[in-house]
Amino acid sequence: DSGVTQTPKHLITATGQRVTLRCSPRSGDLSVYWYQQSLDQGLQFLIHYYNGEERAKGNILERFSAQQFPDLHSELNLSSLELGDSALYFCASSPRTREKLFFGSGTQLSVL
Amino acid sequence: EDQVTQSPEALRLQEGESSSLNCSYTVSGLRGLFWYRQDPGKGPEFLFTLYSAGEEKEKERLKATLTKKESFLHITAPKPEDSATYLCAVGGSQGNLIFGKGTKLSVKP
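Predict the joint structure of the above. Result:
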């Protein structure tokens, strides 16, 4: 158990809908990262928050947004969902930046 | 642009048959080379971090080594429970980790 909690584990929804994925980092970790994993693309970096502030964006679509709250948990919002958004979404945390990441068990999103 | 390439994509071994996985990287300045293990349906699990050429780290049947252009994950006398996807990553300029696509290892009894 990495100490990073993600909910829900599975999410099935329809095209055009909006969903929210939730992540609770390890106790004391200030950095939260979101990654998307698909079979052909591997793990793709989406966005990084540190102590409530956005620090870096990767290949994140404009339809996607995230935030980190004062209690350090984070949410990833995906809207106007398309079939191609179906993937595993991982949250990871670390005490600071540029350190090893601890990953949650992921949310499997299926868009039908 | 920072890049990570892993080979082979898949590797099938017999139990006890040692081998190596390769990770080649292109970065503007190395901020750490990370190895992870990922089991199906689970999140990546941290194995090693290497920071400088010549550095080596070991854990049970696994040993990671680092040169200026690549890293190797050596698996000695593997067991079926070593079957997993092994991911390599480098520290990116944005403070994130940049991952390769992984090597899927299968160890048959």
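DSSP finds no helices and eleven strands in chain B.
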